């Protein structure tokens, strides 16, 4: 795949164009990345591609090498690895709280200590997420900021 970059005058609108023979997983991943920078992610549900605003995401979880994002009532599959999604969302109030999970800090209703140094986060949709002790210090730092 060839990559071309062209600088334009400030008065011209910026446009990103992808020209391809077929929309492969690689192309879909590039599209997802670009859209996430604009505040949306491309996800799939029942074979359809759906745009999900990042602000609507409560958490993301990796299960059997597939990554799912969860909103208040729905779940969607996304064609990214969890570490790729984490990198894209780190400036948008998302934090890793388990080896296989990211959480949107803006969707936390309350946090309470649990057993063995872990914490439990109650989300605004009523779900409870266990924060493993490995990530508790990162959570405390993020909440102080």
User: Any idea what the radius of gyration is?
Assistant: 18 Å
Which regions contain 5 or more consecutive residues with pLDDT less than 50? none
In oligomeric terms, what are we looking at? single chain
How far apart lie the N and C ends? 41 Å
One letter per element, helices H and strands E, the order comes to HEEEEEHEEEEEH
Structure report:
This protein has helices at residues 25-37, 82-89, 136-144, and strands at residues 40-45, 48-53, 59-63, 66-70, 75-78, 94-98, 101-104, 108-113, 119-123, 128-131. The protein is an alpha+beta fold and 145 residues long. It has a five-stranded antiparallel beta sheet with strand order 5-4-3-7-6, with helices on both faces. The chain has a three-stranded antiparallel beta sheet with strand order 8-9-10, with no helix packed on it. A hairpin with a 2-residue loop joins strand 1 and strand 2. It is elongated and about 55 Å long. The termini are far apart.
Index terms:
34% strand; 5-stranded antiparallel sheet; 21% helix; 10 strands; 3-stranded antiparallel sheet; alpha+beta; 145 residues
Brief rundown of the structure:
This protein is of the alpha+beta class and 145 residues long. 21% of the residues lie in helices and 34% in strands.
How are the SSEs placed, and which strands pair?
Blueprint: H1 25-37, E1 40-45, E2 48-53, E3 59-63, E4 66-70, E5 75-78, H2 82-89, E6 94-98, E7 101-104, E8 108-113, E9 119-123, E10 128-131, H3 136-144
Antiparallel strand pairs: 1-2, 3-4, 3-7, 4-5, 6-7, 8-9, 9-10
């Amino acid at each position: 795949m060839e990559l071309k970059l062209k600088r334009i005058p400030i008065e011209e609108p910026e446009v990103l164009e992808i020209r391809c023979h077929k929309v492969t997983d690689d192309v879909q991943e590039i599209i997802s990345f670009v859209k996430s920078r604009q505040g949306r992610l491309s996800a799939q549900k029942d074979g359809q591609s759906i745009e999900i605003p990042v602000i609507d995401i409560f958490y993301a979880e990796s299960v059997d090498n597939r990554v799912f994002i969860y909103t208040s009532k729905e779940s969607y599959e996304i064609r990214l690895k969890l570490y790729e999604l984490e990198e894209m969302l780190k400036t948008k109030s998302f934090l890793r709280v388990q080896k296989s999970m990211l959480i949107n800090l803006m969707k936390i209703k309350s946090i309470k200590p649990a057993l063995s140094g872990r914490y439990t986060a109650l989300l605004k949709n009523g779900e409870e997420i266990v924060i493993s002790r490995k990530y508790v210090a990162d959570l405390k730092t993020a909440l102080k900021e």
